[in-house]
Each structure stands twice: as C-alpha cells, then as structure tokens.
Amino acid sequence: MMKINRRELLKLIGAATLGMASPDELLHALPKEGEWIPYEEYWSTGVCLQCPSGCGLRIRSVNQWPVKLEGIRDYPINRGRLCPKGQSGLQVLYDPDRIRHPLKRKGKRGEGSWEKLSWKEAIDLVVERLKSLRQEGRPHHLVVLGGRYRGHMMDLMARFLEAYGSPNHLGNTERGSEGILKGHLFTMGVDEHLAIHWEEVNYVLSFGSGLLEASRPSLRNLWGYGFLRRGRPGMRGKLVQIEPRFSVTASKADQWIPVQPGTDGALALGIAHWMIKENQYDRQFINNHTFGFEDWKGMDGKSHRGFKTLVLNQYSPEIVSLLTGVPQETIVEIAREFSSHRPSIAISGRGVGMQTNGTYAQMAIDCLNALAGSIDGRGGLLLQRKPPFQKWPSAQKDGIAQKGLSQPRVDGAGIIPFPFAEEVPYLLPEKIEKGEPYPIDTLFLYYTNPLFSIPEPERFRNALEKIPFIVSFSPFMDESTTYSDLVLPDGTYFERWQDDYFDDVLWFDML
To answer: N or C: which end of the chain has fewer CB within 10 A?
Structure first.
C-alpha cells in the first residue's frame, strides 16, 4: 500500500481541485479505515487585513500550512468572532493566481508577456532607476500612487519620499471617504472617522451607511447592530436607513426611506428645520460647544445669518420633500423620533461622501448630531483616542531632496483650487499627458488599481504611455499591474511582518 503523509495528501486534494490529479490517484491516497496519518498542529496569532477593522486572528496550521482562522477571544475589536470576509482569508493565501516572484515585462505593455527575475535583479533595477533620477536632480519625477495602506506602511512610504525628495505621494487611505472626513473637519475640526458608542445608543439614522455590508469597522458594526436589537433586555433600538437603493442594511432596518441620489444633505437640513422650529434640540450643547447657530454681527458691523435662520428660511419639510422625494409627513416623523429617542446619532456612508456635494452633505449630517448633543458623549459618536505612538525622528534630507520637495505636486493637491484635498487623482491623466507641471519618469503602484477605479480608464491608460517606468507591488495581476514594466509582488498578511492599528474603534471604559 502506498505510504503518504498529510502534506502530500493535501497536495493531491489541491491538484484534484484544479484537475491535475485523477480520481483514482486521490482515492488511493485517502486514509483507509483505522489508518492514522500523523500531523503537527500549531496555533499562531495575527491580524486580519481583509477590511479596515483589523480583527485579531488565531491561525491553526497543520504541518506548517494554515488551515483554519478564528478570532482572538480577548481582542478588543472582534472579541473572538470573525466575519465571513475574515473567514475567507485563506483563499487569498492559497489563490492560484497569485504572483509569487518578480516579473519583468518582455513585450509591449498590456500583452502579458513576462520573464521571471530574482529579487536581487528586480530590486537592482529599481535602485538604479532611482539613483539616476537623483543624480540628474529630478527626484520629484517619482510618483507613488498608494491604496490600501495598513498600519505604519503609509508613514514609511511618506518618510521614504521625504528623504528621497519627491512631494508626489498620492497615498490617501481614505479614498472614497474624503468627503465624509472633510465634512467632519469643517464642522468638528477632526479629519478622521468617528466611533459609535453602540452600548448605549437608542436611535440610528443612517444616511447610506453599509452597516451590514462593508462599513468601518465591519465586525464592530455587525456586533453593534445585534446589540442594538437584542443586547439590552426590555430595550430595542431603532435603525432607519436612508438611501436610494434597497440594500442589505435597508432590508434589515426598521424603516427604509428611499431618497433621490445626492439629496442627503437637504434631507438632514429638513430634519434640522423641524427640530429647531419645535425647539426639540439640545440647547445646552449648542450653547456650550458650537458657534454660528444664531445670527451675529461681525467686527465690521455687518449682520450675518446663522445656521438657525438659514435652515428655517430655506429647508422646510415642504421644500425638502420636493428636493428629496421623501414625503413631508415622513420627514416630520423621523425628526420627531430622532429628537425624542436620545441618545440618537446620524451616520453616513460613501454614497453620501462621494457625491460632488458630499462634503456639504456630511456637514449637514454632522449638524444633526450637534442638535441632538450626540458628539463625544455616551450613546453618541466618539472622537478617537489615538494609540500613544512615539514620534519618529525627522527624516534627513540632503540638498537634492530639499530641492525636489520644493516642487509643486503633480496633481495640484493642497493649493488653489484644491487647498484641503489630500490628493486629486482624477486630474492625473491630464497632468501626465501634458507633462505639467513636469513629466513623470517613474510611477510606483502600491495596492491600488487606477485602471479599474479611476474614471475614464482608457484615458488613464493612454497617459501611462507617457511614463517610462512603472512598478507594481500587487500580488495579483490586476489591470494596472498588467500595464506595468516591473512587478515586485508583496506577500499576503499571513506572510509578512506588519503592524496594524485601528482608527474606528476606541475603548469605552474611559467614558
């Protein structure tokens, strides 16, 4: 009888799955009744990077191969649980389409013709390219387009570019949520996501937040939804979902309110109108923690309208109903419930922030939380308490780096007309094609796929032809990686040493 160990058995099972092993070979390899195949079991810990939650992982390995994932019981985010996305993490590790070694383009871009390189050969190519740029006094001709950074990786990349001498770090980890964050910044002075105090909130008014699909942080919000429903004996919170489509969250909410796309801000101001008119808002919070609510006179003696006058004059339920498609009686009903079932919160999702008026819509939603007194208090939205990391020492910059950093960013972010933008990626095709404010020589793509995610991908593909050297760090052959000149595939989160810290959950025992 053929002797086979467990590792060889697993290989045969995998081969059969891919059609490489015959059924007879597989059946012959399976253990007979009463036969024992020895194996070594080992448990290790890690962090799931399938979504921004960063849940703690317990990894069961058999003969050094991970075979099962579970949550860490004492981890503050997931507390021993793991969502379906986290459970499927091993599919990333064992994906047969993963790139497992450096690749160099052989034919034309996009043809899919590659040759394998050693890591030393591939890294040497990049080093020589970067050295040449600095020797020519052109370090700012390097652009790094980053995507899903985790932990301190974004800080490391920014630090590298600072020492190298390029201002072109388009590495916004909040891509798609920037409208939400800028809304927070202009209303509360914090450019970050807020945590939900699920343990005590009574009423959740959700403007398009995918609480049960892919909100931040996913598992914490899934737990929070369950706790809102059944976590407190005799007390059941209410979830109202406002969005144009009947999503999974809408199907599980107590009430779904269809709304015209892009009118979320108007609806929020309509709710605010009723709360102010009926004097059903937190006057103490407004008086102690806000400005601009009432009309005021400036130092020049001119009168200025406050938020109260603006809302009462322009956003009555009648007007808002025409704008949003939501019936007047529904607007009044939601306003009455939101103001009378405190602690209540108003939250939003990417569908709000990604509109052209997304920042203003978010500001209106934040004003609802101010009217309810639900900012940084029990049962409300909580400001983040950051981990107490030590500051890194300043990066050493030589004359070449300082000269390169003095150049304007290629996308124009941070200056007029985009003074508050972290990045303006949709302008890249035009800037690259015209070589403004200077031509791009080398482009790094780190966990981002602009040929898939940026509007007008054909135009961006044409712009890439203007860039002589493109390097992708993706472990998968996505659209942009296919169009690169060199691939340095990163490992999965099971294979690399990396930290991760969460920015959407905080400790509740400090309240």
So the answer is: N
